[in-house]
Amino acid sequence: MWHLVSDSSCDLYELEGTEGKMDFATIPFTIRIGGKEYVDDENMNVGEMLEANETHSEMAQTACPSPEAWREKFSAPGPVIAFTISGALSGCYNSALIGRNMVLEDEPDKQIAIIDTKATGPEVSMLIWHARDLILAGKSFEEIEKDLNETADRIHTSFALISYHNLIKSGRVSRLIGFIAGHLGFWGIGMGDEKGEIVIRGKARGSKSMVRFLVEEISKVGIAGKQIVISHCQNLKDAEALKKALEAAHAGIEVLVQAARGLDSFYAEREGLIVGY
Fold first, then answer.
1. Which of 28, 124, 219, 269 is a Cys-bridge partner for 10, taking CB atoms 3.0 to 4.6 Å apart?
2. Domain 157-276, what fold?
3. What superkingdom does the record give (predicted)?
């Protein structure tokens, strides 16, 4: 049996349509706020975590899955394909590499592919679904690994955030850019570059302007396939508005909306949107 495993940046808890040919599991990040640790699994109360982060002045900390956690998942019999948040944003990819090396010491022929998605949230979801489809199509391990890495380079990620508080504190965007983007009700619009780093593209005042900006930006960059996925942090209203606008702008495109899990909610913050396409 095949095994698909991801860190919790994928925004998925389960994988449908496996036809009994593979299983799926996630390894959670942890978020420490004010002395309390929040584990990004199905039991996490995202709203409680967000409120704690908004009310505590001290800097919150995130921790990626340990090499041992990856090693445990990689040890399952059969080929394994793993997905991590962008290696430019987290040490998770390196942690997974160490976990793989631990397994290969005892099983040098074990098939373990680790995909640095160079993204987070929706793009990770899309790559996991694509891996499932490739397995069901009967592709070989080598073909699947090559296809996933090429697809990761083609898919894009954009985002719209009303607050850059956590990204600024963690050093992932500059304080000046974060201030300008989040000042006076402005949405900051950005995207992940080819290295998986965060680049600010502009700002928009109000949700309607934000939706228009995102649709224009996505249309300009181009869509890699026939699917767009939107992860939202407790903002279904704007996610659905963006879905409607994207469907109107791109005939024949499937647009899916999903709630962000804990890690992506922590960085996107309340009302934030992340789009994979």
1. 124
2. Hypothetical Protein Tm841; Chain: A;domain 3 (3.30.1180)
3. Bacteria
In whole angstroms, what is the distance from residue 91 CA to residue 113 CA? Answer: 17
Q: Please write the tens of the pLDDT for every residue from 171-206.
A: 555 544 544 555 556 898 988 877 767 787 888 999
Beta-sheet strands, E only, within 8-50? 22-27, 30-33, 36-39
pTM over the 0.85 mark: yes
| 199-230 residue pLDDT tens | 878 889 999 999 999 999 999 988 978 899 99
Does domain 2-29+64-154 correspond to CATH entry 3.40.50.10440?
Answer: yes
Tokens for 57, please give them: 């002045």
79-137 tens-digit pLDDT: 999 999 999 889 999 999 999 999 999 999 999 999 999 999 999 999 999 999 999 99
Helix axis angle for 236-249 and 207-221, nearest 10°, is 40
Checking if the pLDDT of 164 tops 80, the result is: no
Extract the tokens encoding 228: 């767009």
Q: Quick one: tokens of 264? A: 């992506």
Contact 182, 162 (CB under 8 A): yes
Chain centroid to Cα 130, Å, comes to: 15
**255, two tokens:** 């647009």
Q: Amino acid letter at 209? A: S
